[in-house]
Amino acid sequence: MTTERGRFEAVASRDARFDGAFFFAVTTTGIYCRPSCPAVRPKRENIRFFATAAAANGDGFRACRRCRPDAVPGCADWNVRADVVGRAMRLISDGVVDREGVVGLAARLGYSPRQLNRQLTAEVGAGPQALARVRRAHAARTLLATSDLPAADVAFAAGFASVRQFNDTIRTVYAATPGELRGSRRATPALTRPDGAARPDGAARSDGAGGCERAGLLLRLGYRPPFEIAALLDFLGRRALAGVEEIVGAPGDRVYRRTLRLPRGHGIAEVAERSVADGDGTLACRLVLSDLRDLGVAVARLRCLLDLDADPLAVADRLATEPTLGELVRTRPGLRTPGAVDPHEIAVRAVLGQQVSLLAAQRLGRALVAARGEPLPTPSGGLTRLFPRVDDLAGAELGELGMPAARRETLRTLAGSLAEGTVALDVGVDRDAAQAALLSVRGIGPWTAAYIRMRALGDPDVLPPGDAALRSVARRHGLDLRRSTHWSPWRSYATHQLWAAAGTPAGTSTTGSGERTSQTGAGEGTAR
Predict the structure, then answer these.
(1) Number of domains the chain is built from
(2) Percentage of the chain surpassing pLDDT 70?
(3) Three state DSSP letters for 12-23
(4) Of 104, 206, 332, 358, which sits 20 to 30 A from 167 (CA to CA)?
């Protein structure tokens, strides 16, 4: 999709695989769309292509109300790219501009606001402020479509500084007033009733605690098919920590639920396995937020956890260059590489699981949550706590965990480094620098640092060194892991394919952060 001819062919065939990879606008109508828009195909001479919705909007085009280009998956390129533009795009999606302004975004990246604006405009056609403004407009449209909040409340919840700014932006992006957008929503209310009569897949369910779930926002999160959600939920379910996460329901009809620590408050998210079977390229999700201003951040972090911006087509094309690996991909198309809703949580859990089995790592995690987790004001089913803050772990004795003293010291040191910022883990950090900082913490080895990089930083190109399960399945299939550079930039997906092929059952010798440790006597995360 790097040439206009290739993009036009995608538009002509209404290929949904490229939704989010680029946008096209029609000069005769003044509207921009996703490639799969079902409207009559425009003439080639009337089409212009844009890297982002903000770029199309900046050139005076408004969003199509039929194909809703604001609801597409994100571009997988931003997760791959390690340069300042890729890092900036990830931070903007996480709401940094709304919270810290362009100056704060630039400071995180080590650039001046003017330099950053110049680079983003050259690459994606819009500066950070314009990108953040369109992001706020998309959040506002979601609230207008899924709640009965007054328009003024929607404005501030979406991150606008004033109702006037909100009205002007909605008119610019959608060529409609907020009232017109709300009037065009579906007749079926998207806001669940407090009596628990609706959940993401449409079935009523008690919260399992004698009451019923609170109301929440029902959303449809876009992804690029295929999506192997069963394997994703298996992965998360085997590592779920009571109080913070739970999976309810039978296979094929499961709902994954977890608590979220957000910039302005907390939330509960749940996604429905069955909704993927609808085949419309969206996953049903429900969010309950203590502060609606966290909507955009909650969605961005949930998308990261579930790897919803993945490009299975690109992954399959690259991994198929290795015949054996290509066969594994064809066996499990759409396998995702799980990310994180909180990078600090993944880092702590990775250290907890060093040199112990997966079940033992779960027990340690549950003990930590029970002892140090922050209780929710109102529990929801099995969800009762937020994962502990690193600030609270830095000086804690952690004797209740029953871990060796050296590993408790590693956990405290890591928590202190994260709290102080000497080790930085967020979607916009330099991944090489973050991995180097992790390795400087006594007790964290190459495997653990690589695993944290894969999940906490969402790096799609990680093959953990010294992993026994990878070595074993590679030998069985005749693969040479030393040639894995040919699988870039999708080595994280190759890792998960090989782990899945290894079929490591729960309870075998594994690291708590994910998979089997080195069999050379100690796990890769062992203290050096």
Answers:
(1) 2
(2) 89
(3) HCCCHHHECCEE
(4) 104
Residue pLDDT, tens place only, 45-56: 999 999 999 999
Rounded Cα distance, 60 and 175, in Å: 10
Query: For tokens 């059952």, what's the residue?
Result: 505
Does 127 share its domain with 33?
A: no
- Residue 31 domain-assigned (yes or no): yes
Question: Choosing from 15, 19, 33, 70, which is the catalytic residue?
Answer: 33
Same domain, 98 and 174: yes
178 and 140 inside one domain: yes
Question: Is 88 in the same domain as 153?
Answer: yes
Q: How far apart are CA 47 and CA 16, in angstroms?
A: 18
Per-residue pLDDT tens digits for 434-488: 999 999 999 999 999 999 999 999 999 999 988 988 999 999 988 989 889 999 9
Q: Considering 19, 77, 94, 467, which one is annotated as catalytic?
A: 467
**Structural domain containing residue 53:** 4-70
Domain CATH number, residue 50? 3.40.10.10
Burial readout 93-132 (b: 16 or more C-beta within 10 A, e: otherwise): bbbbbbeeebeebbebbebebeebbebbeebbbbbbbbbb
Through-space distance between the first and last CA atoms of the chain, rounded to whole angstroms: 46
DSSP state letter for 466: T
Residue 111: which CATH number? Answer: 1.10.10.60
Residue 154 sits in the same domain as residue 122: yes
Q: How confident is residue 16, by pLDDT bands cut at 50, 70 and 90?
A: confident
H/E run at residue 386: strand 383-386
Query: pLDDT tens digits, residue range 284-340?
Result: 999 999 998 999 999 999 999 999 999 999 999 999 988 889 999 999 999 999 999
The reply to whether 33 falls in a domain is yes
Per-residue pLDDT band for 148 (boundaries 50, 70, 90) equals confident
Are residue 88 and residue 106 in the same domain, yes or no? yes
The whole model's pTM is what?
0.88
Q: Is the pLDDT at 149 greater than 90, yes or no?
A: no
Cβ pair 385, 417 in contact under 8 A: no
**Domain check: are 43 and 116 in the same one?**
no
258 belongs to a structural domain: no
**Is residue 33 annotated as part of the catalytic site, yes or no?**
yes
179 domain-assigned: yes
